[in-house]
């Protein structure tokens, strides 16, 4: 839960930084500034979604449940790979990072599927 809250705070900080600092800087540095700002916004948006999801998943299982660690690892790794690569891509010419983002997306997909399976097989869930 703490990691999810830190991810959420980071999303707000980076989002504000993008809106107030990056937007003007990108116009100076790159001819395709609007596209890069869209990449930045996408990274922040998905980071926040998964921060909220991680907090929600953590709150849903107050006791240590099997699978919770896998979900957390997938969501955090997805944030690093997807959002992290897009943030760097938005401010650099390292186009190879565009190939890293799908790996982060795959981590998130695995995390969501793991969450669904954990809920489906939870013995404490009312039938």
Topology:
Blueprint: H1 2-29, H2 33-60, H3 68-91, H4 101-121
Helix pairs in contact: 1-2, 2-3, 3-4
Q: How is this structure best summarized?
A:
The chain has one domain (about 1-120).
What is the number of E strands? 0
Structurally, the number of domains stands at 1
Structural class: mainly alpha
Radius of gyration: 17 Å
- Tell me the span between the first and last alpha carbons: 27 Å
Shape: elongated
Reading the helices and strands in chain order gives HHHH
Beta strand %? under 5%
Helix content: over 70%
In DSSP terms (H or I, runs of 4 or more residues), the helix count works out at 4
The largest β sheet comes out as: none
Describe this structure in words.
The chain has one domain. The chain has four helices and no strands. The longest helix is centred in the first third of the chain and has 28 residues.
Features:
127 residues, mainly alpha, 4 helices, elongated
